Amino acid sequence: MFSHFFYTLKAKGLDVSLSEWLAFEEALSKGLAKSSLTAFYYMARSILVKSETEYDKFDMAFEEEFKGIFSNDALTKQMLSWLDKPDMNELLHENEKQWLSNMEEIHIDKDDVETKFKNRLKDQDSEHNGGTYWIGTMGKTSFGNTGGNVGGIRVGGTTGYQSAFQVVGARKYKDFRNDKVIDNRQFMMALRKLRQFSTKLNIPKTELDIDSTIDKTCNNGGCLQIVMERPRKNSVKLLLLMDSGGTMIPYANLLNELFQSVHKSNHYKEVKTYYFHNCIYSHVYKTPECENGDWIDTEWMFRNLDKDFKVIIVGDAAMAPEELYSKDGNYRGPNGGLSGMEWLQLMKRNYKNIVWMNPKMAIGDAPWREAETAIKNLLPMYPLTVNGLKQAMEKLMMKKN
Amino acid sequence: MGNQFNSTADYVASEQLMASVNIAIALEKPLLIKGEPGTGKTMLAKAVANSLSKKLIIWNIKSTTKAQDGLYMYDTIQRLYDGQFGEEGVDDIARYIKLGKLGEAFESEEQVILLIDEIDKADLEFPNDLLWELDQMEFYIHETKRTVKAKQRPIVIITSNAEKELPDAFLRRCIFHYIDFPDRNLMEEIVRTHYPNVEEVLLKEAMDVFYDIRNMRNIRKKPSTSELIDWINALQIGGISADRIKKELPFVGVVVKKDEDLTEVNKNMN
């Protein structure tokens, strides 16, 4: 049942597994939806959705799937089967007359229904840009006053439930979506993905393995037998390069959060942070103020920070193409004979894993943002959001040869 | 179905929450509860236990907790001691196997409620280590070659503060419910259960300020229910008249804990 809904959920980006779907079917067959659309909504959500960040997607899928079904809250078994989308699609294609004749079948005064229905449809048009509405009939006053309900669902007066479509329509979980720009805690969580535990590091066995020692000793009849092991250490080294140019000022807070998260995540073997202005040239700066002289040579960085460093470049890549391609330097001084683009290519050659995080990345292709597009083609670029950072971390953890 | 959870005298659950609990019970799956701190996640388990008159077993998770801790512990050190002093029964390993909270819940003759509190505090891998046990409701004690199997499948309630992401495999087995932050009406009800005699105007003013602060965009740590309750208590004890609340923000430190937030609040409120 509702297999179409399953695919709608998938299409909205919800990763519903088959086992969850089966649990949902089981719940249906146990009658846990209690013949109410709202209970059905909450039941489906609690079984199929496992994070409040996904609630919004679920709401949207639910609305898309079941929008246009309007009834008072009660649902019978028969209505549940009507709610099943394949059937509904057929019904949707029937024209007004046909379903008015459906009305007739259940002995409702046709004219009355027709006028009320037309009024209803008019009202809905102004709110919803039309669409085809299927009207559930329970032999009750199907076209009763539906007030300002978003989905056109009426709330049963006494259940105390919020109408499913009110909930859906309000999109109150929008703020939880994890594609919105992140805060500190979530940053740290994402950064935690960047770990590569290794006991293969070339370090002596210095840690006393207490559990094994006790076990061995006991097995040994009480004669002490000590077990040592190598400490497990994260072997990831991180190089953070941040743009602190003028166009980045609106994101200062965000960068500050990222910076703090990186430094609070003290599980890295080594963390280095440098700053640049718009693009990386022959120098990178030690402080965000990017003052002349307070810098290190980019080539020094290449030599001293080896290729195993994982590099996160943060910047909006918003510069004039001339700035990216000019060999003569920018207003801050010479470039060392190479254009910004060439410096970036050098970066790519020197480090195995680089990602570019962009706080205001265009969605999809944006050829008019020339510099951004050029850099995107060179380095994997992700938006500076929870999802973006996660993807970037996964990218950084990929093995490259 | 005999097991139906309803609101109790001292815990008001929303309909959705009750539905989720009952779905979890009916489907015999763990119920995962998330929500902002102070939304009554832990209280829920107690309320469920009360409502169904069942025993509640609480397993508090700390950052050092391992899955094994919940199953059983083999007290090797005690055995070592006993061995050295020639106590009776040292050869009986079973004497040194102590069941953890999960084991306790499995061994119980009657169905119990098992609360695994703040599962996100533990290591990232912790939930994965419990998959089999929560699915099959059994585990195996290697030392004694005994399988502990749930006599009555416990009702498992798990809370999380979303400090860590839980693994997908684990999530797939759970029923999930996110407790929304209480709206004004519910909040009023909650405050009144604590202070039934709170002054009408004072409550209204304090809640205005509270929700204003929560709605400020730059607030780092949003104040929670318990902070509002503390604040109202402070206002009452301090004998602050209601008209001063918005103007002076007395004792606002009870609600706002961070320096940056305090500056922000003062800036916005004046």
Short description:
With 401 residues, chain A is of the alpha/beta class. Helix content of chain A is 43%, strand content 11%. In chain B, helix 10 packs parallel to helix 12.
**What characterizes the major β-sheet of chain A?**
5 strands, parallel
Shape by Cα distribution of chain B: elongated
Largest sheet of chain B: 5 strands, parallel
N- to C-terminal separation of chain B?
56 Å
How many strands of chain A? 13
**Low-pLDDT residue intervals, each spanning 5 or more residues of chain A:** 70-74, 85-97, 102-110, 124-162
Largest protein-protein interface: A-B, 34 and 33 residues
- What is the SS-derived class of chain A? alpha/beta
Percentage of β-strand residues of chain A: 5-15%
Q: What is the average of the pLDDT values of chain B?
A: 84
* Individual helix count of chain B: 13
Principal-axis shape of chain A equals flat
Rg of Cα set of chain A: 30 Å
Tally of separate domains of chain A: 3
On the 0-100 scale, what is the average pLDDT of chain A? Answer: 70
Order of helices and strands of chain B: HEHEHEHEHEHHEEEHEHHHHH
Helix content of chain B: 40-55%
Uncertain segments of chain B of ≥5 residues (pLDDT<50)?
A: none
Task: List the defining traits of the structure above.
A: about 400 residues; alpha/beta; Rossmann fold; five-stranded parallel β-sheet; two-stranded parallel ribbon; 17 helices; flat; B: about 270 residues; 2 domains; 13 helices; elongated
Can you walk through the features of this model?
The complex is a heterodimer of chains A (401) and B (270). By secondary structure, chain A is of the alpha/beta class. Helices cover 43% and strands 11% of the residues of chain A. Chain A has 17 helices and 13 strands. In chain A, strands 8-7-11-12-13 form a 5-stranded parallel sheet. Chain A has a two-stranded parallel sheet with strand order 1-2. Chain B folds into 2 domains: 15-179, Rossmann fold (3-Layer(aba) Sandwich), CATH 3.40.50; 184-269. Chain B contains 13 helices and 9 strands. In chain B, the strands form 3 sheets. In chain B, strands 2-5-8-1-9 form a 5-stranded parallel sheet, with helices on both faces. In chain B, strands 3-4 form a two-stranded antiparallel ribbon. Chain B has a two-stranded antiparallel sheet with strand order 6-7. Chain B is elongated. In chain B, 33% of the residues are buried. The model of chain B has no long low-confidence stretch (mean pLDDT 84).
